[in-house]
Amino acid sequence: MATTLQTTVMKFGGTSVEDARAFERAAALVSRERDARPVVVVVSAMSRFTDALLAAFQRAAGGGHEDAANALEEHFARHSEVARALLPGEEVAAVESAVDEARRELAAALREASEHSRPLPELQDLVVSYGEQLSSKLLAAVLRARGLGARQADARRCVITDDEHGRAAPLKEETDRHTRAELGPLIAEGVIPVLGGFIASSAASGATTTLGRGGSDYTAGLVGAALHSREVQIWTDVSGVLTADPRVVPEARTIPRLSYAEAAELAYFGAKVLHPKTILPAVVRNVPVRICNSRAPKAPDTVVFFDAEMTPRTVKAIAHKTGVHVLHLTSARMLGAYGFLRAIFEVFERHRTEVDIVTTSEVSVSLSLEDTSSLEAIAEDLKQIAAVRVESGRATVCIVGEGLRTTPGIAGRVFSTIKDINVLLISQGASNINLTFVVEERHVAEAVRRLHAAFFECATSELLADIGGH
Ligand code: ADP
Ligand code: ASP
Ligand code: MG
Fold it and tell me: Which of 95, 191, 196, 322 has the most CB atoms around it within 10 Å of its CB?
């Protein structure tokens, strides 16, 4: 392992490889890091390509496989354009032949989807995997064109999962072993492995699986953990993790340091900049995760450490998530009875649906969830044990900070700031570092902006969030 001890894993998201200029920026960043230490690169599909592949798949599954395939042409062209702008002739030809092969294989897979001749979840993963297959091929060639020894590595030979298509769970030992076996020799030779994020393969069948939307971050975390890397860098389109989503709060600022627990809560409750599971493999091996801006590499960034020092009286950030549903369950049977909650959670387990917030009273339970793929079936099953009411169009707001453990008065401050907005469920997170609540979706942006102003923009605030320095 001596040669891999010092590796940096550099992950580039879709917008960091959206066009030729972005590829050039990514290559310059890799080149600079490579001067200091060995690098492993993880790359997402070019921006919007995964969405296009998913849309094509859905269209094909509905019967129109030819239209579906045609809609992908503009994205194939984007790959060729990058190749022509940045690569020498023979490498352009190699990329174009990879694009042609992808076009043929995708057309065949989309035809199968329209005929339903193979299980659809398996075909869907195969179809979307071409985004990362092509971007990794292209980025490896761009790195070579800059004189760096780089080679595409197949992520499906590294990340080994169960066969829950669409959101497969990596198997830790197999992934560690395969990742080291695949990448170790390349690193030892001084080659930069370039692998697609998000895509993996099933231990049982060998079929292509995916880790869930945004899963390239997760791949980077897994690879960093397997190689005991020095650091995992997530290169994206914002300057690190900010105090709120900058699309809602333009005043949001970079948070220099986060603890793993804080980062995990933020990611889970909507800060899309990090996939919720990224943190986990890194935590265990104590590998720091740095989130940086590929368009402004010198801008401030965020480092997530195992246990960023506790900063008392600190609120670090506000995350929010829309598209949330709330289920209210009421049953007199709950009064003094054992096993009621278990019966409820068994229903969610059966339908493999995650619950975000849970609150209980004497005779009722309310839960919030985001994944509605099985909502009708869940409601049907729950009706066997309780009266069920479903509210849609809700959003969660989550305030995160290690300081929430110890600081009195934060809840009072939060709810007085938004006292005219109806709050539907409240949970002081079990981890003690978050305060989460549900509001109507149409009020969420206003709630987040006001809370941000109260905690981060008001210089005289007693609870002024000290977001700490480097
Ligand atoms: P990538 O394609 O690089 O993986 P994503 O689109 O998945 O990038 O994530 C970056 C986006 O996350 C940002 O553009 C931003 O709008 C959003 N985001 C949401 N919450 C936050 C936050 N607290 N800090 C930074 N970005 C956030
Ligand atoms: N390309 C995948 C997606 O769009 C994975 C990722 O970008 O992280 O979800
Ligand atoms: Mg992402």
Answer: 196
CA distances for 287 relative to 13, 186, 230, 369, angstroms? 20, 21, 6, 31
* Neighbour-count burial of 35, counting CB atoms closer than 10 A to its CB (0-12 exposed, 13-18 middle, 19+ buried): exposed
pLDDT at 462: 43
Residue 465 has pLDDT above 60, yes or no: no
pTM: 0.91
What does the CA dihedral 73, 75, 76, 78 come to, rounded to 10 degrees? 130
The alpha carbon of 218 and the centre of ligand 3 are apart by a number of angstroms equal to: 9
Widest Cα–Cα separation across the chain? 76
Q: 208 alpha carbon to ligand 1 midpoint, in Å? A: 26
Query: For a pocket test of ligand 2, which of 136, 213, 223, 234 has the largest count of ligand atoms closer than 8 A to its C-beta?
Result: 213
Question: How far lies 320's CA from each of 212, 246, 412, 442, in Å?
Answer: 19, 11, 19, 12
Whether pLDDT at 461 is above 80? no
Query: How distant, in Å, are the alpha carbons of 184, 203, 258, 262, 355 from that of 305?
Result: 25, 31, 6, 10, 27
DSSP-assigned letters across all residues of 2-13: TTTTT-EEEEE-
Q: What is the β-pairing status of strands 317-330 and 289-293?
A: unpaired
Helix (H, G, I), strand (E, B) or coil at 116: coil
Beta strands in 23-108 (DSSP E): 39-43
440 lines ligand 1 (CB under 6 A): no
Position 309 scores a pLDDT of 58
The answer to whether the Cα torsion of 440, 413, 462, 260 is positive or negative is negative
More confident residue, 382 or 284: 382
- How far CA 343 is from CA of 3, 333, 350, 371, 389, in Å, comes to 51, 12, 11, 20, 17
Q: Are 170 and 222 in contact (CB under 8 A)?
A: yes
Ligand 2: which of 125, 198, 275, 294 to mutate, most ligand atoms within 8 Å of CB?
Answer: 198
Cβ 307 vs Cβ 282: under 8 Å: no
